[in-house]
Design goal:
Layout lengths: L1 H16 L6 H4 L10 H17 L21 E6 L23 H17 L3 E6 L8 H4 L18 H7 L6 E3 L8 H11 L7 E2 L3 E5 L8 E4 L4 E5 L6 E8 L9 E3 L2 H4 L3 H13 L3 E7 L6 H13 L5 E5 L5 E7 L2 E6 L5 E8 L1 H6 L7 E8 L2 H7 L11 H16 L5 E5 L16 H14 L11 E6 L10 E4 H7 L5 E9 H4 L2 H7 L5 E3 L5 E3 L4 H6 L4 H18 L1 H6 L8 H4 L3 H7 L2 H8 L9 E2 L16 E2 L9 E4 L11 E7 L3 H14 L12 E7 L3 H9 L6 H14 L11 H10 L7 H14 L24
Parallel strand pairs: 1-2, 2-3, 3-4, 8-10, 10-11, 11-13, 17-25, 22-23
Antiparallel strand pairs: 1-14, 5-6, 5-9, 7-8, 12-13, 14-15, 16-18, 17-24, 19-25, 19-26, 20-21
Length: 797
């Protein structure tokens, strides 16, 4: 299967590379011109070559002084990914916590391969598991060039089609589907036809079916997208494992997709027959996959209860997903449920100990579960493999995967540079109004400078511009802002609409109306559809909306940390200005009062004398779960759901009219509010959807690229600006990633010395030369072209 995937993806990459995409050098123009004198041309050449190298740079290593916790391996072990959302190239920014998650899909493939070997050598079994949401959120999955279906490349113009082939280069044992594979029928059909067959029954969709041949066919019928269940026997100890793949009760799937609730699924005849089969077979463990959070969804309890009616004490390992959190809970003494984060930040680990002892005793006796949340980076991978150096992690397959991703990135122009971000901007690490607040930047700078001017015909009119904070998905970190970053920061493609000539007496109330409307009245999905929920949390959840759940989790983690640290803070000299009553507050009191002094104190945790910033998980299982000891990421809950850019200057009277501009997915809500405030002014309430017009050519995905081209153009040049940022990262302890071995050079060296008996000094010399010859490309950007990365692919073996 791997050879087929490699050959197919290589062919795809060549086809993509031949598509008519402008080279980086033709677009990397600062301030809209390039001077033609020799010095300017030399500087420009350095910019181009530097960023061609940067496009293949891979972020930074985590801090070397961070303490690591070991994996507690069992007889049967699991490595788990979920909610990758296209982050196959890892996290490449220099600011914390990004270096902690700098591992890419090549690193993960190498880690998985070597962990299998390690487990086998120790007489253990290891399963690789993924629980869905493979795309939507990164350019390598979503940034394909536009094609018509009948054009060459049209097949690739489907979300996730190409990145699924990258994903398939890791040989997973068990997989299931996520809701992001189901919002669009074309995407789901692509998964069914081109992705599922690669897995030979290991891709399971126990409660998801697809209409065939298409939803509107007269002879339409529904079939499971994947297998209903799977049985496997582990290769080392021969454990008999029964598995299912389940999706939460998803209500917003595309036409032609049928999702059954887990509660109904377990009452189906096929499910009961599968339990009969497990009984006759003598099953040793159930491994149940689900794109479903391990806390808060009743579907898991329905599945566990049904299995327990037939198998009262058989171990059950549950691997969840969907809400992007790190979480674990013991549903009973023989059932652990684990959820492993998001965006390739986390590799989940679960170990089941004493399973072999139980098997030898006729499947009687208790097992012990262990878990870890592994920060996804080469240093941590190498540590858990007991390697001497992260450089020893590399494999030929991992290097080939990286080459393919770089080729796709270049073919799709994902490394196109828009500008250099001068500082970090956070979604919720600082309060709204702070100079580092992304929402403040959006309201105060981006909306007035990018959105307002985009409709040329209305420049003589005053305008109010409104946007929802949910349109922003990720922090904006200092450093190069590229085409790939626009898919990360704001993946939605909402257009802007406007209602012309609204009296200011109505318009001035709209922002407050939005902020006081029932929370979460509108659900947005990646394809831009909308659904009203009237504040119904269950409907929001059923529609796939999880952002409020993730925010509540972040808030809970932060305030639990504050509570746990209160005694240490009281003893700390820096907390001398705090009263004992402040330090002894409960989590609930801290959340209610949002004590600013305490928050300011803990914002200082990002320093060299503290552990680096990252996840500091408090879950429901025994002992610490994170493999890395971090200082927690600060969280500030004071974030508005909507922000606005007011007319400048403000209207002089309530009767003066303004244009009201907003993103299109808010349109029904805006019409409702416009009519509400119009009626309060004794108007007719006659605003309708038909009166709305498109505002320029701007979309939410283009906000930051256009702002970067206006405002993030460093006077000293991009190359020098990024080099300065890289030097600051180095001083903070974030070193460049170790360069992988030059496998071709090593093979040539081995071939040349075949039949000879080199001395130890010669061997050491050869190794040293190999290392030095490939080390320059992972350092800062040098104008010398000798350190540029070769475009020759490494061996794919």
């Amino acid at each position: 299967m791997l050879c087929t995937a490699l050959l197919g993806l290589a062919a795809t990459t060549l086809a993509l590379a031949s598509s008519p995409v402008e080279p980086l050098s033709s677009r990397l123009i600062f301030n809209n011109h390039v001077d033609t004198d020799a010095d300017s041309l030399a500087n420009y050449r350095a910019e181009v070559e530097g960023f061609q190298r940067w496009s293949r740079e891979r972020g930074r290593m985590p801090r070397s002084d961070d303490k690591l916790r070991e994996l507690d391996l069992g007889d049967l072990n699991v490595l788990h990914t979920t909610d990758v959302h296209g982050w196959f190239q890892g996290h490449r920014k220099l600011s914390p916590p990004e270096p902690s998650y700098s591992g890419d899909w090549g690193d993960w493939a190498s880690f998985a391969t070597k962990m299998r070997t390690k487990a086998r050598s120790e007489g253990r079994d290891l399963l690789l598991i993924d629980t869905g949401d493979l795309h939507d959120g990164n350019g390598i999955a979503d940034g394909f060039p536009p094609y018509n279906e009948d054009e060459p490349g049209g097949k690739e113009a489907v979300d996730g089609h190409v990145s699924n082939q990258i994903f398939s280069m890791v040989d997973y044992d068990l997989l299931t589907i996520g809701n992001h594979e189901l919002y669009n029928y074309t995407v789901a059909k692509d998964v069914y036809q081109n992705f599922v067959p690669q897995w030979g029954g290991r891709y399971m969709t126990s409660n998801v079916k697809i209409a065939l041949p298409h939803p509107d066919a007269p002879n339409v019928s529904y079939a499971p997208i994947g297998s209903l269940f799977n049985t496997l026997v582990t290769p080392v100890q021969g454990f008999k494992v029964m598995s299912y793949g389940i999706l939460f009760d998803f209500k917003l799937a595309a036409k032609g997709i049928a999702v059954q609730s887990p509660q109904e699924m377990v009452e189906e005849d096929w499910f009961n027959h599968s339990l009969d089969r497990a009984d006759k077979w003598g099953v040793d463990a159930f491994v149940v996959l689900g794109h479903m959070p391990v806390s808060g969804d009743p579907g898991w309890e329905a599945v566990r209860t049904k299995i327990r009616t037939r198998f009262p004490d058989t171990p059950i390992a549950i691997l969840g997903g969907h809400t992007h959190v790190r979480d674990c809970r013991m549903m009973d003494p023989q059932t652990m449920a684990l959820e492993s984060g998001r965006y390739m930040e986390t590799i989940g680990f679960m170990g089941i100990k004493d399973l072999q002892k139980r098997k030898r005793a006729g499947n009687r006796g208790k097992v012990k579960f262990t878990r870890r949340y592994i920060d996804s980076n080469p240093r941590n991978f190498a540590h858990h493999l007991k390697l001497r150096s992260p450089r020893d992690l590399a494999t030929k397959k991992g290097s080939f995967i990286r080459f393919i991703m770089d080729a796709i990135s270049e073919a799709w122009n994902l490394s196109r540079l828009h500008g250099v971000v001068p500082q970090d901007y956070y979604l919720d690490r600082v309060p709204y109004g702070d100079s580092s607040s992304l929402l403040s930047l959006l309201a105060d700078q981006v909306l007035p400078k990018v959105v307002r001017p985009s409709e040329k015909s209305r420049q003589d009119k005053k305008s109010l511009v409104l946007i929802n904070s949910g349109s922003q998905r990720f922090d904006v970190y200092s450093g190069p802002f590229t085409r790939n970053d626009q898919y990360i920061v704001s993946p939605f493609k909402d257009r802007f609409l406007y209602m012309a000539d609204v009296p200011w007496g109505i318009a001035k109330h709209l922002l407050n109306g939005l902020l006081t409307f029932k929370k979460g009245a509108v659900v947005e999905v990646m394809q831009g559809d909308t659904q009203y929920s009237d504040g119904d949390a269950l409907l929001r959840y059923g529609s796939g909306f999880i952002e409020d759940i993730f925010v509540r989790w972040q808030k809970s983690q932060w305030f639990k940390f504050l509570q746990a640290e209160r005694e240490a803070a009281a003893a700390d000299a820096q907390a001398g200005n705090m009263t004992s009553s402040t330090i002894n507050k409960s989590v609930e009191e801290l959340e209610a009062e949002e004590d600013e002094e305490l928050l300011k104190f803990f914002h200082k945790y990002d320093s060299l004398d503290k552990p680096s910033l990252g996840y500091r998980t408090i879950d429901q299982c025994a002992g610490p779960g994170d493999d890395t000891v971090h200082s927690p990421l600060p969280f500030n809950p004071n974030q508005p759901e909507y922000v606005a850019s007011n007319p400048d200057p403000l209207p002089e009277s309530d009767d003066e009219v303004v244009d009201v501009v907003f993103v299109d997915f808010m349109r029904k809500l805006m019409i409702e509010l416009l009519n509400r405030y119009d009626l309060q002014r004794n108007g007719t309430g006659g605003y309708t959807l038909e009166q709305l017009q498109t505002w320029g050519d701007i979309t939410t995905q283009l906000l930051y690229p256009r702002y970067a081209e206006l405002e993030w153009q460093p006077a000293e040049g991009a190359l020098k600006a990024v080099n300065a940022q890289a030097r600051r990262a180095g001083k903070m302890g974030y070193a460049p990633l170790d360069t992988e071995p030059d496998f071709d050079s090593e093979e040539r060296s081995q071939s040349e010395t075949a039949g000879k008996t080199p001395s130890s000094g010669t061997t050491a010399s050869t190794s040293s030369q190999s290392s030095s010859s490939t080390s320059s490309s992972s350092t800062s950007f040098k104008e010398d072209t000798s350190s540029s990365v070769s475009t020759t692919p490494p061996s794919s073996k």
